[in-house]
Specification:
Elements: H1 15-24, H2 37-44, H3 48-60, E1 64-67, E2 71-74, H4 85-94, H5 99-123, H6 126-143, H7 151-168, H8 173-196, H9 200-215, H10 219-236, H11 251-254
Antiparallel strand pairs: 1-2
Helix pairs in contact: 1-3, 1-4, 2-3, 4-8, 5-8, 5-9, 5-10, 6-7, 6-9, 7-8, 8-10, 9-10
Length: 255
């Protein structure tokens, strides 16, 4: 008779995961103090060493700072290591209800993506255009296929692929690498805005126009088409467009 398998010890609760969920969901705002170590020890039934180790993960991610004699305080969003893989993973899992983080990401995208679209319109190869078109066709197929049980998720996946393909079409090594790192943050806004969009057909048309501007090598029009896509995202999220000097047409395109 074989011996019964030795049961695995249950994984200990993660203080870092629990606090990240609450912080990214907005339960703790920048400047707020999270519970003290001793309280976290009682709450999670862990020793102080384990709690400190988990808090260190949040410190290393730039999300909290330890203040001697006071505890741990949430840092400003601008201090977070937002491109750290662990932070982007938490962001995708937990940040959907947090308008503050959504606004930061939207501001960044407005600062960057119109210029990326402009560059893609100058440099995109036939292979790049195929990738952009395939992603767009996937968006349309998911939108017009109401019988699909995964319609919303698939639409968002293709929407993200559309934007990532435009980053890659710049043929700039930095933008190409950033497209992988930025994928979770783009997915965060895309997934939320696609659910709440009041004009999904118009959103699809804005993406089609952006694709056509890139395909027909019209940098100036691609710039503004990208801004229009992000305006639609802001509207779907119920947000005003961020104030930014970027997002305006570059002088070189104004002529």
């Amino acid at each position: 008779m074989k011996d019964a398998p030795t049961p695995r010890s249950p994984q200990r609760p993660s203080v870092a995961e629990a606090l990240a969920k609450e912080i990214f969901a907005g339960q703790y705002q920048p400047g707020d103090f999270v519970p003290k170590e001793i309280d976290l020890c009682d709450q999670f039934s862990l020793n102080r060493s384990a709690v400190r180790s988990d808090l260190r993960r949040l410190v290393d991610a730039g999300i909290i700072e330890r203040i001697s004699g006071y505890g741990s305080r949430v840092r400003a969003y601008s201090e977070w290591n937002i491109l750290d893989p662990q932070v982007t993973d938490w962001m995708v899992q937990f940040a959907t209800p947090n308008p503050g983080i959504q606004r930061e990401i939207l501001t960044f995208r407005l600062d960057v993506e119109p210029y990326v679209a402009m560059t893609a319109a100058k440099r995109a190869t036939a292979r790049d255009l195929v990738a952009i078109e395939e992603a767009f066709e996937g968006m349309g197929h998911d939108f017009y296929n109401p019988e699909s049980s995964n319609r919303g998720r698939l639409h968002s996946d293709h929407d993200v692929a559309f934007h990532v393909a435009i980053f890659k079409a710049t043929h700039n090594i930095v933008w190409t690498q950033l497209s992988h790192i930025l994928r979770p943050s783009i997915h965060l806004l895309v997934q939320t805005s696609n659910v709440s969009a009041s004009d999904p057909e118009q959103s699809l048309e804005r993406h089609r126009h952006l694709m056509e501007c890139i395909r027909t090598r019209r940098p100036r029009e691609a710039f503004f088409a990208s801004v229009a896509v992000l305006e639609g995202t802001a509207d779907a999220l119920g947000m005003e467009m961020p104030e930014t000097l970027l997002g305006e047409v570059p002088a070189a395109l104004a002529r």
